């Protein structure tokens, strides 16, 4: 795997690093900081899932604590889906999974990890998966009419319509990637260029905006656009 090499100083550290390599079928492959961050995020979500499952089995008539948070999150996702889709009942699991993974990845910078979503390979995989779901939804809903729409309203617009379809995964993935990578670079620049005194306390405002606020906004925008694109093919 080719490393992303970009550095503005000996202490500036925001690029993807290879942790160790191995050979498979004669090819040299790397385990990078992105893989380790993804493993940490996936493990955190797995533990959360186990805790939530046990909590919901002890459902109370008057919910409190974690149960309140779970019900609020589910209601939020349902409102997001049904607010943008005519029939979104079958997409709660997918949109919910994307929402949890992307949000946790965006917030992982608070714990010293390099956010997996700051790697285009991760965001493009999410965008590509969404693209295939969009196409499958269109085929199931309109059959051959899904492809016929590429030639409407006139045949000559086919190239423009085709580019519009191909641009969907690129648009979804690039928006998320660029915002997260930008935040990662800004935080790295601050720690690398500021004196030690300014590295204590003040960076918390950067993390609050770049990791928490921007991370939550980008997660919401990604999921909102996902529902809009899918609904357009129904």
Structural overview:
22% of the residues are buried. Residues 1-10 have low confidence and may be disordered. Helices cover 65% and strands 6% of the residues. The protein has a two-stranded antiparallel ribbon with strand order 1-2. The chain has helices at residues 33-57, 66-84, 92-107, 120-142, 145-148, 158-193, 203-232; strands spanning 18-24, 27-32. Helix 3 (92-107) packs antiparallel against helix 7, helix 4 (120-142) packs antiparallel against helix 6 (158-193) and helix 4 runs parallel beside helix 7 (203-232). The protein has one domain (18-232). The protein is globular. The protein is mainly α and 234 residues long.
The percentage of residues in β strands lies in: 5-15%
Number of strands: 2
Give, in spatial order, the strands making up the sheet with the most strands.
Answer: 1-2
Radius of gyration: 21 Å
Provide the structure class. Answer: mainly alpha
Helix fraction by DSSP (H/I, runs of at least 4)? 55-70%
How far apart the termini lie comes to 38 Å
Average pLDDT rating: 81
Overall shape: it is: globular
The sequence of SSEs as H and E is: EEHHHHHHH
Biggest sheet, open or closed, and with what strands and sense? 2 strands, antiparallel
Query: How many structural units, i.e. domains?
Result: 1
SS field, number of helical segments:
7
Low-confidence stretches: 1-10
């Amino acid at each position: 795997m080719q490393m992303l090499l970009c550095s503005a100083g000996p202490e500036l550290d925001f690029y993807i690093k290879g942790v160790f390599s191995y050979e498979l079928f004669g090819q040299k492959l790397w385990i990078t900081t992105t893989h380790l961050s993804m493993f940490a995020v996936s493990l955190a979500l797995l533990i959360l899932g186990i805790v939530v499952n046990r909590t919901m089995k002890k459902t109370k008539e008057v919910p409190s604590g974690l149960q309140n948070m779970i019900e609020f999150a589910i209601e939020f996702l349902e409102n997001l889906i049904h607010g943008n889709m005519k029939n979104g009942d079958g997409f709660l699991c997918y949109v919910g999974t994307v929402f949890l993974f992307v949000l946790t990845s965006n917030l992982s910078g608070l714990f010293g990890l390099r956010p997996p979503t700051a790697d285009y390979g991760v965001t493009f995989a999410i965008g590509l998966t969404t693209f295939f779901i969009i196409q499958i939804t269109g085929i199931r809903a309109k059959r051959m009419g899904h492809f016929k729409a590429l030639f409407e309203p006139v045949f000559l617009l086919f190239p423009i319509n085709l580019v519009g379809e191909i641009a969907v995964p690129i648009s979804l993935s690039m928006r998320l990637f660029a915002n997260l990578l930008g935040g990662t670079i800004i935080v790295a620049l601050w720690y690398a260029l500021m004196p030690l005194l300014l590295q204590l306390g003040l960076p918390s405002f950067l993390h609050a905006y770049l990791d928490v606020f921007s991370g939550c906004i980008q997660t919401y925008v990604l999921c909102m656009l996902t529902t809009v694109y899918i609904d357009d093919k129904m």
